[in-house]
Automatic annotation (TrEMBL):
This is Peroxiredoxin. It comes from the Bacteria. Pfam families: OsmC. SUPFAM superfamilies: OsmC-like.
Amino acid sequence: MVNHPHHYHVEVEWTGNLGTGTDGYRNYSRDHVIRIAGKAELAGSSDPTFRGDATRHNPEDMLVTALSTCHMLSYLHMATVAGVVVTAYTDAAEGTMVTEGDGGRFAEVVLRPVVTISAASDPAKAEAAHEVAHHACFIANSVNFPVRCEPRTVVASD
């Protein structure tokens, strides 16, 4: 297998200087802007638990989002390869993070995709595509904590 490197460039700018910089833990905002060329900016902050703005995206949400969307995109491909026609896909993913000392880590992420397939599609193949997709997901392969998948398949009544 040949390695094909892919590079991703992101710019992050902290916008939370309230006038005195970081001269005290409560004296600055965690707000920042995430920029990726050619894409809409993302308004970022920290989790509200860590003095962040709840209306902005935080790194923890984005990590869970990355795992969920990577699985979805891998799954759609694997379902297509298996001859399964997917007509709808939703996921209610949930991540669990634990704090330790001054930091923390994710303990796990659970994906809960609900996949609707056409009546002519094989539900067993639809279920099996999740396992193949999980092993193909670049993001799941890059984290050091468990990513579990608890899928549910719905067969459409065509």
